[in-house]
Structures are given as C-alpha cells and as structure tokens.
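Chapter review: from sequence to fold.
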Amino acid sequence: MEMIWAIWWVWVIAALALATLEVVAPAQIFLGFALGALGVGVGLLAGVPGMATSAPLTFLIFAVLSLLAWIVVRRAVGVREGQVKVWERDINDD
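The token string follows.
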C-alpha cells in the first residue's frame, strides 16, 4: 500500500491549495511552499530515486525546495527600497 505522502498528485493538489491561499492572503510565503510542493510532486512523478520510499527524504526535499523558491520569490517581488511607510504624525495628535 502506497503512503499518502508518496503519491505525486497529492503534492500537486497541495501546491494548488497553497497557491490559492496565496491569492486569498497575499504574504508571499505560501507561494514558496506551493512551488516546493509542486517540485516534490514533479519529482515523484518523474520517479526520482528514493523519494517515494523515504518520508524524511521527501519532506527534506520539500523544505529545501520551498526555501529556495521563497528566496527567489522574495528577491523577485519582495520589499523594494522606499516601499516602507514611515509615519511622521499620529492621527490622534491634533
């Protein structure tokens, strides 16, 4: 019997759910996890040796891919210079 974490389409559905969550709550963090899950799903579909038989290896690959994807997304669409709002005056000060 195949474990749920070793099925490629489960990871792809998780990637779609995380990407949808990114649209609903845009924080640029769920997109990294979505890309990591998609990478694991594609890896399982392609038959990367050892992924389907080792849960720790599968989750390690997911973590590394998610971190790398988050770094790339952060550099691509992250905080730009001059984008931080500094409040000079409080609305309660009159």
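Two observations follow directly from the output. The chain has one domain: 4-77. The mean pLDDT is 87.
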